[in-house]
């Protein structure tokens, strides 16, 4: 039996009240099927609000997020998507800052290394489309099954090397 909009809204509200970002992502597909554009926008705004709250709590506790912990994983995903939105909109400084914070926030070395490449591309104001074409390996990332761009072309190594030659900036 298909869920009604009201049933889905109740599930979303329950997950939101519990600060359960992971459950909201589980409901994401149904939200796309049932909610109108305005409600869907509010759905994603709720995810972002919870993720920013969790980010603040994590920073205040001076701890790193564990990619093996479901809520930390979902939080990192939401914040990564937020950073990509900034990057896509050409708000390079904010995107770079978000990538830097997220890279340092996670205990996953692969994630942190990938976000270093994201940050460097943002700092160089490389448009997202160009990043996807010349730096990222989108096909290999899809095969890897990560929520973030995790595989890169050889040009990414040049980006890292140039950064190190420039003194890390």
What structural keywords apply?
single chain, 169 residues, mainly alpha, 2 domains, 73% helix
If you had to describe this structure to a student in words, what would you say it looks like?
- This protein is mostly helical.
- It folds into two domains: 1-63; 67-169.
- The chain has helices spanning 5-17, 21-26, 28-34, 37-60, 70-88, 92-105, 109-123, 128-135, 138-144, 155-165.
- 30% of the residues are buried.
N to C succession of SSEs: HHHHHHHHHH
Question: Using DSSP, what is the number of strands?
Answer: 0
Q: How many structurally independent domains?
A: 2
Mean pLDDT: 94
By helix and strand content, what is the structural category?
Answer: mainly alpha
Shape: globular
Short description:
The protein is an all-alpha fold and 169 residues long.
Task: Spell out the blueprint of helices and strands.
Layout: H1 5-17, H2 21-26, H3 28-34, H4 37-60, H5 70-88, H6 92-105, H7 109-123, H8 128-135, H9 138-144, H10 155-165
Helix pairs in contact: 4-5, 5-6, 6-7, 7-10
